[in-house]
Amino acid sequence: MRQHFLLGFDVGSSSVKASLVNVETGECAASAFYPEHEAPIKAVRAGWAEQDPQMWWSYAKSALATVMAVTGAKGEDVKAIGISYQMHGLVCVDKEQQVLRDAIIWCDSRAVPYGTRAFKTLGAERCLGHLLNSPGNFTASKLAWVKENEPEVFERIHKVMLPGDYIAMRLSGEINTTIGGLSEGMFWDFKEKRVADFLMDYYGFSGDLIADIVPTFSIQCRVSKAVAAELGLQEGTPISYRAGDQPNNALSLNVFNPGEIASTAGTSGVVYGVLGAVNYDPKSRVNTFAHVNYTTDTDRLGVLLCINGTGILNAWARRTIAPEGISYADMNALCATVPTGSDGLTVIPFGNGAERVLENREVGCSIHGLDFNRHGKAHLLRAAQEGIVFSFCYGMEIMREMGMDIRKIHAGRANMFLSPLFRETLATVSGATIELYETDGSVGAAKGAGIGCGIYKDHNEAFATLRQLAVIEPDASARAACMGAYARWKSVLAQTIA
Questions:
Q1: How many other CB atoms are found less than 10 A from the CB of residue 297?
Q2: How many CB atoms lie within 10 A of CB 330?
């Protein structure tokens, strides 16, 4: 009896991952990513970041070939395809679907002045009320940069796309996009529930540049005959799901309902929560986009908090403060020898560039209350981890101000969530239960495809086999000490940014 699979791609800026998920068991049969070393990013000037979309396609083909070979799957065994992708990128193609320039990706900052001018000219009330964000450095503003600085390219643009739209185009020969994709690019008007004509008009964009809109969960397009022959897939296989990486990470953790939170804590940290009503932060300290289950009839918004100084601080502390050669596990054990609050030592962790949660201030990392007679390496290491936790909780307070009732945090057991100190302090200060799972973006995209093509009736069926690895409850006995340390941290932060 042949097995049936769902195929998921996760198109990142460092690699492209592919996974095959067994339809019947819900288990991942094989995963592979390419390249083995981090993919190149072109930075011709300071603050610029570009990648050739053809490179993503090449990586996707290599990863696909590996998982097909490992499982022995045939083209007819793959029943649907889902795509997760790096958010906020700009891909421009002509009428022959040829890329006109390298993609301007998420971490490119050249468009900041364009978004800032739009926000000032159009007004905060109009931008926030309709877009739920400032136009900022998002895709629409990147397109404005192309229009002004590369007019000969702009004149040839047939359609603009997000990175995931490009991969879907290469698979199918069709160009379309989703409301989620439009919202992350600042092309979606949440008040009028259509393309944001007022921003398009301000920038001088024709509505023809926007691709046809398809539902996030639907048969959006199908694998073409030529691509089927090239990749060993079956012609007509549906592409039935696509989403940006952070909404998709939430989907991968079965986060769909208002008040549920998905979090990651790698080099930078993300808290992504679902809101059940249209709202925004008036200071734009967090971003709001359409979640995967948003429709024009049902408001499901993803509120995105990003903290730049997360795992990068912990890694720096291991390299420069911890005893040489110590493992992260041993470093966590060393932290545990120090009481909650690090004996009065406070670390502000924002040493990895401007922080949106601080209204784009660049305050750096700083240490406060250091006593040479009392504090040692263990105090500094613990204070660093506590500072990271407190930055998360600070941002979550903003999310609560927007009406989010945060009771549960879903996360993969990886990076900072491997630290008992980090996760226990986060649960205690936030008051939320943390549930740790074994999951991955490409697996989530595959299961999203299963929902989109009707193999699974809903997300509960799709993620019924999601493996819960641990549950961390708030510690009532430690709450007073944790909250005292957090109050001190917020006081120091207020003085730092004053």
A1: 6
A2: 13
Determine how many CB atoms are found less than 10 A away from the CB of residue 155: 9
Alpha helices by DSSP H, 22-137: 53-71, 112-122, 124-131
Helix, strand, coil shares of the chain, percent, nearest 5, are 40, 25, 35
Which among 243, 246, 244, 255 is positioned nearest to 434, based on CA atoms? 255
CA nearest neighbour of 412 among 388, 442, 387: 442
The DSSP output letter for 39 is P
CB hemisphere CA count around 252 (13 angstroms): 36
Q: Which amino acid is at 306?
A: C
What are the Cα distances from residue 419, in Å, to 250, 411, 430, 433, 475? Answer: 21, 13, 17, 16, 16
**Per-10-residue mean pLDDT, the chain, length 498:** 93 96 96 94 93 98 98 97 97 98 94 95 97 95 98 98 98 98 98 98 98 98 98 98 96 93 92 94 94 97 94 95 95 96 98 89 95 97 98 96 92 94 98 94 97 97 95 98 98 96
Give the Cβ contact number of residue 78 at 10 Å: 26
Angle, helix 479-497 to helix 377-401, in steps of 10 degrees: 80
Q: What pairing do the DSSP bridges indicate for beta strands 433-438 and 408-412?
A: parallel
Q: From the CA atom positions of the chain, what is the Rg in Å?
A: 23
Q: Comparing C-alpha atoms, which of 152, 68, 50 is closest to residue 111? A: 50
Q: Return the beta strands (E) in 119-268 as ranges.
A: 159-161, 176-177, 188-189, 194-195, 212-213, 217-222, 238-244, 260-265
Start-to-end CA span in the chain (Å): 67
Are 267 and 349 in contact, with CB atoms under 8 Å apart? Answer: no
